[in-house]
Amino acid sequence: MRPRLASAALALGLATTPALAFDIGNMSADERAMFRDEIRGYLLENPEVLMEAIAVLEQRQAAEGQANDKALVSTNMSSLVDDGYSHVGGNPDGDVTLIEFVDYRCGYCRKAFPEVQELVETDGNIRVIYKEFPILGPESITSSRFAIATQLVEGEEAYAEVHDALMTLRANATEEVLARMADDLGLDGQAIVARMSDPEVDRRIKENHDLADRLKISGTPTFVIEDQMLRGYVPLASMMEIVDEIREAKG
Fold it and tell me: How far apart are CA 9 and CA 7, in angstroms?
């Protein structure tokens, strides 16, 4: 072993020695300087050690984050699945519940939209709950208000139709555009627009934002599948794997 590496190995060994056997505080200034130099030299010559340490740190942080998210989901489960107003789609009696915090103007929400549809349709046993969570500006708010107003005026089936239409809408989300969109679906667009300022619409959006704050959600899409929180876009294949793992864990 080269002298420098031998010294560094010794320094690293000393650094991991129990405090009672080795105390850096008892080193002289020159000894501490040499100790630091040897460790620095070793790491510069063996940078893979740093990469291994970073990988371990990231794994620990990911595990801690997942554990924290599960705790948040557990604490807020009632609000997530039984708030009394969020639309329930898919199979209402499904054995796996998927909750999505959605913003209709979010590019990744739109990317996830057909994949969530495919997951629900091909599986047949997933309950889907949508949380209106407009965070990307005025058109996001207008879209969510219109969707909720549709639910209040026309009911759940109409909400589902408007939800899907909003996810694929290419035009600017103005009240005029949304009213025409609803009319094309056979709904009363003007009646829906008139209901957009209903205090109930305000209440639902505020409650969803409050819930998101408690869950530390700041972006869309965010999915909650049973006790797992998935922050951001998740490919279809990954969602299918998660659903399978949840079912397997349930036995």
Answer: 5
